[in-house]
UniProtKB/TrEMBL annotation:
Species the sequence originates in: Rhynchophorus ferrugineus (Red palm weevil)
Protein name: DNA-directed RNA polymerase III subunit RPC3
Residue intervals of the DNA-directed RNA polymerase III subunit RPC3 winged-helix domain: 303-380
Pfam families for this protein: HTH_9, RNA_pol_Rpc82, RPC3_helical, WHD_POLR3C
Single Gene Ontology BP annotation: DNA-templated transcription
């Protein structure tokens, strides 16, 4: 893991849990698989504080543990990827709200804030949502060991335990009754959200490239894929086109997607993403979904767009040429790009310096007739470029978070004053204060302070937007790496 990545993780932990937990997390980031005494030695914190910090991090699934060789002590490991997912929480909430309404959003929000919850505490509302697998069982120890091994059977992951409503009512009224599922906890299933986010990326890509009807057809294909295939497989099992057409007949009998279904299938099949391909003549008009190939193409397009925006159209043309010809000499590149030799040379080596292009040197075998000749060839290592861009995204996230914290620090006095006045106004509303009394309190913030607050709010909103958009890029790059 890079230094920049570690700084981003550290800032996220600090903002959400404070400096003590951050110190423990920083040590675990640097020294993975560390027992308790090693953490104490490396952080100089009291054992009690370290234990509290580890409990918090384990509760939110940010730290994993397993027994060491003698099975009596635990080694702790920071799950830095899960820390980074905390930036994605607003997207999970928004997706839950769009899919199932405000109640679902509140349920997911509560589980994210608490780390885990019992089904009794989420009763009735959760019951309707469990079939979507947005919530899953928290692993639990099945054997009594010094260092427990947390597991959960696949059959239990989404199976709701028996819940007695009478017991819940008695418990709510203050009766001394143990809840039947008090040791069965539920957590948010990030993979399920990522699956929906991945599908949204695919459908949106086809909607933008063609129209919404094409996106709807792809959405149905993806939904039917889950009946036959694991959601994260590279290539799906065959899906009959007639099955998709029948679903369209039931959902939208007068839609363009149904009326021109064969034409849509033709253009989708010919698309350069190669997402849908015929499963063969013998399969009778069935198609397979190639997720790996599709995300490889999406990432190529993303990188080309980044090169275009960062440099110019000439650099993008050079990048596309190297992509089309896996190995190409500088002289040949200059000729095919139809760019002045000086510009082509400067841009190609600029792309090389920034790790978008790579160089392969070939040496011609020496002979008695003359000196050895070297050949320099440009090529692209897609995995390396993706990882380089991920590192750039982490740097952007770090800069954005530092800037946000700096804005808060510079305007701390005015922000705190606004919070105090808002608290007073809230209390006055509860006491049915008059409009004149509340106006007097509001006037405690001067006109210049209001202007500063508006400016700060605008900057914060822009930084929040940047953070979400950078995460979109991170998600796309991570999806590519998932299928490698």
């Amino acid at each position: 893991m890079s230094i920049t990545y570690g700084k981003v993780v550290s800032l996220i932990i600090s903002e959400r849990f404070g400096p003590v937990v951050e110190k423990v997390a920083n040590f675990l980031f640097k020294c993975q698989n560390s027992p308790l005494l090693f953490i104490k030695k490396g952080t100089d914190l009291p054992i009690s504080k370290i234990r509290e910090s580890l409990c918090v991090l384990i509760k939110y699934r940010l730290v994993r543990f397993k027994a060491n060789k003698n099975e009596n002590l635990a080694n702790y490991t920071l799950d830095s990827d899960n820390v980074l997912l905390m930036l994605r929480y607003p997207k999970y909430l928004n997706h839950a709200k769009k899919s199932f309404g405000d109640e679902s959003e509140m349920i997911i929000e509560e589980v994210l804030q608490r780390g885990y919850w019992t089904a009794s505490e989420l009763i009735l509302k959760v019951y309707e949502r469990l079939s979507t697998k947005y919530l899953t069982r928290l692993p639990y120890p099945k054997q009594d060991k010094a260092v427990p091994i947390l597991t959960v059977d696949e059959s239990e992951q989404n199976h709701l335990p028996n819940i007695d409503i009478k017991v819940l009512v008695m418990h709510q009224k203050g009766g001394k009754t143990d809840l039947p599922d008090k040791k069965v906890y539920w957590v948010v299933n990030f993979d399920r959200f990522h699956q929906d986010m991945r599908d949204h990326v695919i459908c949106t890509a086809f909607s933008k490239k063609f129209d919404d009807n094409a996106g709807d057809i792809i959405r149905i294909f993806l939904r039917q894929m889950y009946i036959r295939t694991d959601p994260w497989t590279d290539i799906s099992n065959p899906i009959p086109a007639l099955e998709v057409k029948d679903i369209l007949k039931k959902q939208a009998p007068s839609s363009h997607s149904l009326a021109f279904f064969d034409q849509y299938m033709s253009i989708i099949e010919q698309d350069n993403s190669k997402l849908l391909r015929k499963a063969g003549e013998a399969s009778g008009g069935s198609y397979q979904i190639y997720l790996k190939d599709a995300f490889t193409q999406f990432v190529w397009e993303l990188i080309e767009q980044i090169v275009l925006e960062k440099y110019d159209s000439k650099a993008a043309r050079i990048f596309r040429l190297v992509k089309l010809k896996p190995y190409i000499e500088p002289d040949q590149l200059q000729q095919l790009a139809m760019i002045p030799a000086k510009d082509a040379k400067m841009l190609s080596y600029q792309l090389y310096e920034d790790n978008y292009l790579h160089i392969q040197e070939l040496r011609k075998a020496s002979t008695n007739s003359g000196p050895t000749k070297n050949f320099t060839l440009f090529h692209i290592k897609l995995n390396s470029v993706v990882r380089m861009l991920l590192e750039t995204c982490y740097k952007t996230l770090l800069n954005t978070m530092i800037r946000r914290n700096n804005e808060k620090l510079l305007n701390k006095r005015i922000i705190d004053k606004k919070h105090r006045i808002d608290t007073i106004l809230m209390a006055m509303r509860d006491q049915n204060a008059t409009e004149e009394q509340m106006a007097d309190i509001e006037e405690m913030i001067t006109l210049s302070e209001k202007e500063i607050l508006e400016k700060v709010n605008k900057v914060m909103k822009n930084l929040g937007t940047v953070e979400l958009e950078v995460d979109d890029t991170i998600f796309m790059l991570q999806m590519f790496l998932v299928y490698q």
